[in-house]
Design brief:
Blueprint lengths: L1 E3 L9 H14 L6 E2 H6 L2 H8 L3 H10 L6 E5 L5 H6 L7 E6 L2 H10 L4 E4 L12 E7 L7 H14 E12 L4 H17 L8 E2 L6 H10 L4 E8 L2 E7 L1
Parallel strand pairs: 1-9, 3-4, 3-6, 4-5, 6-7
Antiparallel strand pairs: 2-8, 7-10, 9-10
Helix pairs in contact: 7-9
């Protein structure tokens, strides 16, 4: 697998970021995990202000999508903040969005009724074979365990056509310490709350870019490139 620019700077200061993360984990150690769809349903009114920190990343997204892409799948499409920027640049493209949250989907459709919507868990929903020119996602997949991602990436690879790309703008761990710390806290919380193994909950468990690339390689992608980082949201592109 060809890997490019995976040493991209994600955080201005790893030391400051880790200090803040450890403080936040201490402050929230007794806060229970929330089921994924419910987490977003109850936060629909505050979602846009919360995501404004990544306005630059949203505006950047269209330039990374191949200009000839005509069929695009958006994983965890939410209320469509990335699609707000992408759709005007691709007027002849067919968009499909998949998400769990009813409130988020309704908000998206109020703006973009032309988008094909699938309300489902993208870990379980079949994507088909050789359908899409691009699969995209924004700040969604960092809630998944490595094993879950591995299965998802295999599905993404299969649903892309011969020239397809997967573009994920997400929260990646800035170092091995961050990755290990969050995975351990996540595991401890799940055990403490006796959650079933298939319960999808909201908690950040990002991987480093290198470990993300390992999963993409195991799924059959031939190249992986970090494109840019915007306030901690980093674009990663994988090609078939």
């Amino acid at each position: 697998m060809i890997r490019t620019n995976l040493d991209i700077r994600i955080r201005d200061s790893i030391e400051d970021h880790m200090f803040g993360l450890k403080w936040w984990l201490k402050e929230t150690k007794d806060v229970p995990l929330e089921e994924m769809a419910s987490f977003f349903d109850v936060r629909i009114d505050d979602y846009v202000p919360h995501m404004e920190r990544w306005d630059e990343a949203y505006r950047t997204f269209p330039k990374y999508i191949p200009p000839d892409a005509r069929v695009i799948l958006d994983l965890g499409c939410g209320s469509g903040l990335e699609l707000d920027q992408i759709i005007p640049c691709f007027p002849n493209t067919d968009f499909t969005g998949i998400d769990l949250s009813t409130a988020m989907i309704n908000e998206l459709l109020s703006k973009h009724p032309e988008v094909n919507i699938i309300q489902a868990d993208y870990l379980k929903y079949p994507f088909g074979e050789n359908i899409y020119d691009a699969v995209i996602s924004f700040e969604s997949l960092h809630h998944l365990l490595p094993k879950q991602k591995q299965g998802l990436y295999k599905k993404i690879r299969s649903c892309l056509n011969g020239n397809g790309v997967f573009i994920n703008c997400d929260y990646y761990a800035c170092c091995d310490e961050e990755e290990t710390l969050l995975l351990n806290v996540y595991d401890e919380k799940r055990k403490k709350e006796h959650l079933p193994t298939d319960a999808l909950v909201h908690f950040d468990i990002p991987l480093t870019l290198e470990h993300e690339a390992d999963l993409l390689e195991s799924a059959g992608f031939t190249s992986c490139s970090a494109l840019s980082s915007h306030s901690g949201a980093c674009f990663l592109k994988a090609t078939v």
